[in-house]
Amino acid sequence: MSEHRDSRAELRQTPSGEEPDRVLYVDPDATQLVTFQRTMRDEPVNCRAVTTGREGLRLLDEAPHAVLLVDLVLPDMSGMEFLARASRLRPEAVRVLVLDRLDGETVCDAVNKVGVFRILQKPWDGSQLRNAVRRAVVQHRLLTDNHLMAIRLQEVNEKLHVLNRELDATVAERTSQLLLSLCNALDLRDTDTQWHSRRVALYTRRLATELGVAGEELRDIERGALLHDIGKIGVSDTILLKPGKLTEDEWTAMRRHSLFGAQILAGIPFLLRARQLVAQHHERWDGSGYNGGLRGTQICIGARIFAVIDTFDAITSDRPYRKALGHAHAVAEIRKGSGTQFDPAVVAAFERVRAEEWEEIRRHSADPEVAPD
Ligand SMILES: [Fe+2]
Ligand SMILES: [Fe+2]
């Protein structure tokens, strides 16, 4: 009795303004259908009753239904076939099978194959029928609410995903700006190399493009080039700015700057590939560089490209002890190092870029409005 009252109470909660739930009963016995309509007269649902499967399917096709009650034996198809077809038309409708006789095999098929929610045995009385329909309507609402909630959850998840991506991009952008400022500060400290970091970043980008590098890898290589000497922050002024020759110990300290640089960038996930270039930017193709003594393709492509560019920039920039040398001089020097200091494929690509284009990038890099990515 209490189960009866509870389900009725839940049924009364149909949101106002919404159409009552539709309930369809398919049974070949017209008297049975009349009893059904009479029994359900006071229920807050919209009841329809038909005697054939075809008519039932037509009604289902016209409008969604919350509950289907179907007799096992119909004149034009079996109740099971009707339910299978109905579940394709209206998968959300809750299905009740009406049986004259409880037979285990039929019940199993009804539950397992056509997803029947409840079995109603004939002859049913008014309270059994109402109870079965109320339970089925409540089940339908639960399923519909669950479905709506799953859709909303998915929408919220998608929004969160977009927000996360935007947040990641903002963090990456701000961190890059911070690192760019740090590099500018470093370039100013080491006055001989003012604009060096910006310039080599743009040169490196051009040479990497010539070698077919693109997309995120290109951006990472450019960032690595920009940050290549960030580890000089850990080298003392007395060594970094010493006008004369460095002692052996001072050289050892100076060489550590590529390791310091890699340490500084270690905690920044989006700079992992850039960090590889920073760690390896003084390696040489023949294995005689520092700090890992890597050789050939053990050295990442970014560091192999950067090695050529760093030399190119050193030769074509003013130094305290000499004026800048021309492009042809730089090409000759770089060619000499092909296969020993430099990757021959990178040297070949470098030579393919015209002198005027390098000059254009040099002028561009001294423009404070231009910032590498
Ligand atoms: Fe360096
Ligand atoms: Fe450098």
Give a quick account of the main beta sheet: strands, pairing sense, barrel closure.
Answer: 5 strands, parallel
Name the helicity range. Answer: 55-70%
| Helix-and-strand structural type | alpha/beta
Shape: rod-shaped
Write the layout of secondary structure elements.
Blueprint: H1 2-11, E1 21-26, H2 30-39, E2 45-50, H3 53-62, E3 67-71, H4 79-89, E4 94-99, H5 104-112, E5 118-121, H6 126-189, H7 196-210, H8 215-227, H9 237-240, H10 248-255, H11 257-265, H12 272-280, H13 301-315, H14 327-336, H15 344-352, H16 355-365
Describe this structure in words.
The protein has 373 residues and is α/β, with parallel strands linked by helices. It contains 16 helices and 5 strands. It has helices spanning 2-11, 30-39, 53-62, 79-89, 104-112, 126-189, 196-210, 215-227, 237-240, 248-255, 257-265, 272-280, 301-315, 327-336, 344-352, 355-365, and strands at 21-26, 45-50, 67-71, 94-99, 118-121. A 5-stranded parallel β-sheet has the order 2-1-3-4-5, with helices on both faces. Helix 7 runs antiparallel to helix 16 (355-365) and helix 11 (257-265) runs antiparallel to helix 12. Residues 1-7 have low confidence and may be disordered.
Name some characteristics of this structure.
58% helix; binds fe (ii) ion; 2 domains; 373 residues; disordered N terminus; Hypothetical protein af1432; Rossmann fold
